[in-house]
Design goal:
With 465 residues, the protein is an alpha/beta fold. It contains 14 helices and 22 strands. The chain is 32% helix and 26% strand. Strands 1, 2, 3, 4, 5, 6 and 17 form a seven-stranded mixed beta sheet that branches. The protein has a five-stranded parallel beta sheet with strand order 8-15-9-10-11. Strands 18-19-22-21-20 form a five-stranded antiparallel beta sheet, with helices on both faces.
């Protein structure tokens, strides 16, 4: 086996965690290489996940707005038609711009892109398609892959994962989404806006099970009003494909009579699992848990000295921004600095319309933990800017400690929820209170005023309701 350069750090995987870690290590003076087997950098997020899905969400939202909603604001568009080919081109152009941007950043920061498939051969040794490289530190950032169900085979044509759902050649007349989480609802919303009749099948008795119950319940009402159908507390027991489509056999989760759902396309969205196959982790002695997550300590080091892991391959929410933060913190620790992540303050966002976002504790979690808390809630309907935008659905909900007023959690359903959550996140990072938000002047007229009013409502003194 040919031996090539040695590095301070070799990062395996060029997704958000990996490429950010590589760049930060290089900024801190280390000699860095990043291994990526795909033709483009950016991993799942930039190529077949976060970025392309948001491009389609934004485009489909504009299509729906032009077709069904602008007339109430005095904008008459005439007949609105869909050019799916151009919409997909927009998505692909966005992906291309982002991935080429990372390649530019690698060159700018002198990060070597080692193209190929990596395998850890031992302490400080990585082989890439037959060529061996040495590294003082190895970082595993290979991300995650789609999970499926035992009785369902994904072919990316009729039965698709999120990957296939991003490149359907035409709008299906009917689509069934298995899974009522973030990805299922987002992709279901895209194709529903474009004309598909979408049915969501969810094993649990609610959608968005990890979010606050108020958000989950209200989101269900809103999506139903938009035309999506839901079968909750329902499990899939069998699938049959034919030229005419897919037949799903479903039954109540607790047992009972089955029924058949026929659709042109089925989207399987039941979660993701760590991608660690073929890396040689077992032979290297890297310990993993029963889910396939790599066990790491507080410095992200695995059971083998010098081998680290971040992102979706370790415990925690499988979110791109969580991986990025871990990548930066690990890089700074490798440089002898200190780093910190408050895992309670990782925001989560659902990019439907309206959006949903959360940070910190849910009300249900506080009840289970026996924490005394106060609730401040304010509706978008009572905000002037929301009315002007014709975006009055939803609310901001702030949870604060009953004794200290410290903000413990926040949950937003409404327009720009993914942006609004960050003001509250910054306050929480500094241990701030609802009073701190309430006493901060917010520009008028803005949606951010809803956050201020929710903070005032914690102390039962909102102004505009």
């Amino acid at each position: 086996m040919a031996k090539q350069s040695s590095y301070d750090v070799i990062v395996i995987g060029a997704g958000p965690g990996g490429y950010v870690c590589a760049i930060r290590c290089a900024q801190l003076g280390m000699k860095v290489a990043c291994v990526e087997k795909e033709k483009t950098l950016g991993g799942t997020c930039l190529n077949i996940g976060c970025i392309p899905s948001k491009a389609l969400l934004q485009a489909s939202e504009k299509y729906d707005e032009a077709k069904n909603h602008l007339d109430v604001m005095g904008v008459e568009t005439g007949k609105v038609s869909l050019n799916l080919k151009n919409m997909m081109k927009h998505k692909d152009d966005v992906v291309g711009a982002n991935t080429s941007g990372i390649e530019f950043l690698f060159k700018k920061n002198k990060v070597d892109w080692l193209k190929g498939t990596a395998k850890i051969e031992g302490e400080g040794q990585v082989s890439i398609d037959g060529t061996s490289y040495e590294a003082r530190n190895i970082v595993i950032a290979t991300g995650s892959e789609v999970s499926s169900l035992p009785n369902i085979k994904i072919d990316e044509k009729q039965i698709v994962s999120s990957t296939g759902a991003l490149k359907l050649p035409k709008v299906p007349k009917t689509m069934t989404v298995i899974g009522g989480g973030y990805i299922g609802l987002e992709m279901g919303a895209v194709w529903s806006r474009l004309g598909a009749k979408v049915t969501v099948v969810e094993y649990l008795d609610k959608i968005l099970p990890g979010m606050d119950q108020d958000v989950s319940k209200e989101m269900l009402k809103i999506l139903k009003k938009q035309g999506m159908e839901f079968k909750l507390s329902t499990k899939v027991t069998d699938t049959k494909t034919s030229k005419s489509g897919v037949e799903l056999t479903v039954e109540p989760a607790t047992g009972g009579d089955s029924e058949t759902i026929k659709s042109d396309v089925v989207l399987v969205s039941v979660g993701r699992k760590p991608f660690t196959q073929g890396l040689g982790l077992e032979d290297a002695g890297v310990e993993m848990d029963e889910r396939g997550c790599i066990n790491v300590d507080e410095t992200f080091e695995s059971s083998v000295e010098g081998i680290f892991a971040i992102g979706d391959v370790i415990k925690g929410p499988m979110l791109a921004h969580k991986a990025e933060e871990e990548g930066v913190v690990l890089a700074e620790m490798l440089a002898g600095q200190t780093g910190h992540i408050d895992y309670n303050l990782i925001p989560g966002v659902v990019y439907t319309y309206p959006e949903a976002s959360q940070i910190g504790k849910t009300e249900q979690a506080l009840k289970e933990e026996g924490v005394e808390y106060k609730v401040g809630k304010f509706p978008f309907m009572a905000n002037g800017r929301a009315r002007a935008m014709n975006a009055t659905e939803g609310f901001v909900k702030i949870l604060a400690c009953a004794k200290t007023d410290k903000v413990l959690g926040a949950h937003i359903l409404g327009a720009e929820a993914g942006t609004l959550i960050h003001e509250i996140g910054a306050v929480m990072e500094f241990g701030g209170s609802a009073e701190d938000i309430a006493r901060t002047c917010h520009a008028h007229p803005t949606l951010a005023e809803i956050v201020k009013e929710a903070a005032l409502a914690v102390d039962d003194r909102p102004i505009h309701i």
